[in-house]
Amino acid sequence: MIVLPLLKGLWLTLRRFFSKPITVQYPDVKRVPAPRWRGMHYFDKDAKGETTCVACGLCVAVCPSNCIYLEIGEREDGNRYPIRYEIDGLRCIFCGYCQEACPVNAIRLGPGYEYVKYSRADFTLTKESLLSMYEGKE
Amino acid sequence: MMDAVFFVAESVVKSVLLIGVLLTFFAYLTLAERKILGRFQIRLGPNRVGPWGLLQPVADGIKALTKEDMIPAAADKVVFVLGPAVAVFAALSMFAVIPFGGTIQLFGRDIKLVIGDVDIGLLFVFAFATLGEYGIVLGGWSSGNKYGVLGSLRAAAQMISYEVALGLIAIGTVILAGSLRLTDIVEAQRGMWFIVYQPFAFLLYLIAGLAEINRTPFDMPEAESELACGFNIEYSSMKFALYFMAEYVHMIVVAAIITTLFLGGWLGPWLPGPLWFFIKVCAVIFFFIWERATFPRLRYDHIMKFGWKVLLPVALANVVVTAFVVALR
Question: How far A2 CA sits from the closest chain B CA (Å)?
């Protein structure tokens, strides 16, 4: 019969009509991202609140879209640290290779997924913004 | 003399009220359709403008009014403007003969809850339904756009194929009621609704009605995926809104005709007549939205094949059988 599949379809949609909507009302309710979600980068901090980055440059080398800029400095005790560390947020593809390459787990990708700004310059992530990325949240 | 004045005043008041109710119904029908479609797709539907999205029609109206109103250079300007006007006029006019209630007593006069209780009501409805299709055909044809012309061609072909069947299907109920007057048809259903005597005709009328109002699965004239909106491709601003209005009012009218012909019109226990009428119309419209959420668009040649090779023969058979049964009774 030709009619039976039509009725089956109607029955299926009617069941959907009486089921609960799965909509997440976004600005009011925010989804919790998956544990391994690769969102906005942040810097791991040491006890003094400084970055643990040793400016080895592995992340710069591994970055497939060449969006990390690093200027290397040296402290008095001989340890290297980044004078400038910038990620061009508009070129980053959030692959997470920097996180994998980092020998001291300094650069990480966090859960943040709201990436909306008013000017292009605001998308550049600096050392300061990476350090304060998730401050006051969680 | 006084009677004439009363008649004119009564008609004007009823017309104004009915148009107001219809346009409000249209506005909230668009919202209801989006909400209900949303629920069919396990979504919520629009709920941002006002509580539960109740002001969404207002926002849509403001948007439609403030958009740029363009007339393409290649268009036939007079016909281009005339198209949506004809469509809306025809859609609204059809409701003039549809009874939405019995007779009520007001100011010591019997007032029939129908604007024009003409004795060729059904004929009037079909005539104006066809005129509504003209609005679509003219609009698409005059836009000077190939997709518009294709949409119009399809609208014309679909109109010819399905109006014939639609008329034949309705004849079954006319034979049972013995009148073309819609109030008589409703009164004839006082004992039993015609859906019981004419179940096939009811189903066929639902299908052919869908084809008449260009709704999925028969929305050939404006097939988005192939024709990029078809006949109304060049329309913007309020002209587009008028086509939209025509389509939805036409949908309400077809639901009202189905209610009148098969579901006993305003008849029903306990509740007042107009409320019954409203409930039945809403039920039919719910089905229209429900099937839109279910069925994909048919292929063009399948629609033609179905119209001529299935719908028309079955409708003819229904007329013949009904006539025989009524004659032998």
Answer: 12
Query: How many residues are recorded in chain A?
Result: 138
CA distance B45 to B38: 5
The contacts of residue B139 (CB under 8 Å, 6+ apart) are B79, B80, B83, B84, B87, B148, B152, B231, B232, B235, B243
Residue B305 pLDDT > 70:
yes
B31-74, pLDDT tens digit by residue?
999 999 988 888 888 888 878 888 888 888 898 888 888 888 88
Domain boundaries, given as residue ranges, for chain A: 31-131
pTM confidence score? 0.80
The answer to whether B318 and B201 are in contact (CB under 8 A) is yes
Domain ranges of chain B: 23-66, 75-328
- CATH class of the region A31-131: alpha beta
Contact B40 A13 (CB under 8 A): yes
**Which residue in A40, A45, A43, A59 sits closest to A122, CA to CA?**
A40
A23 interaction partners in chain B (CB closer than 8 Å)? 42-44
Positions of E strands within B251-307: none
Spatial CB neighbours of B133, under 8 Å, sequence gap ≥ 6: B155, B156, B159, B163, B212
Neighbouring-strand partners of residue B134:
none
